[in-house]
Amino acid sequence: MRRDNRHGPAVRYLRWWRWRRNPLRRHSDVVEGWVVLALWVLTLVGGALAGWAAAAGVDRTIADRWAGVHPVSAELTESAAHGTPVTAGYDIGRTWVTVRWTAADGSVHTGRAKALPTAAAGSQVRVWANRSEALVAEPPGKAESTFEAVVAGTLAVQLTVTVGYGTGRLIRHRLLDRRLAEWDTEWRHIGPQWRNLSGGRG
Questions:
Q1: Selection from 158, 93, 94, 101 nearest residue 124 by Cα
Q2: Would the pTM count as exceeding 0.70?
Q3: What residues does 72 pair with on adjacent strands?
Q4: Which tens digits make up the pLDDT trace of 25-58?
Q5: DSSP string, 116-154
């Protein structure tokens, strides 16, 4: 049975041939090797930094949202059974109703909030208001914030790796075209000499 030596020392040697001295290595081969190595290092480091920055940005955005809102206890001014049903999102089954609450400065405000369809007029519901006492959506909780940060970081890493890989492929394609052009030029000079040595006619 023939032994498979595809992963033997010879293969490992060939993987680093651009950095080893050999008569077939060209200047463009060395350039390509260093370009590919530099791109991979930049892609890995850049991907890690981009992922961290994206995740940190999401964390800051959510923290700012939490800092700009506060919970209030509002009173339903109408029965939820007479409100408008929620038709989209995670709150399907709830109802839009008018609520009223008193701000810290004593001013009274009204707005629209979601409540269970069984809620009666005069019952209390927890809502979130911004600094202008306008009702806003509740900011994401800890689990949701972590999930959004992880997703943002992962997408940033994938985008950075994709750009780095695409750039590397483009550079290697250009270097290959240049190398083929060099080989074609050299063959124009060497080819006739080989034909003469082999007895052929130019």
A1: 101
A2: no
A3: 127
A4: 666 667 777 877 888 888 889 999 999 999 999 9
A5: -TTPPTT-EEEEEEETTS-EEPPPP-HHHHHHHHHHHHH
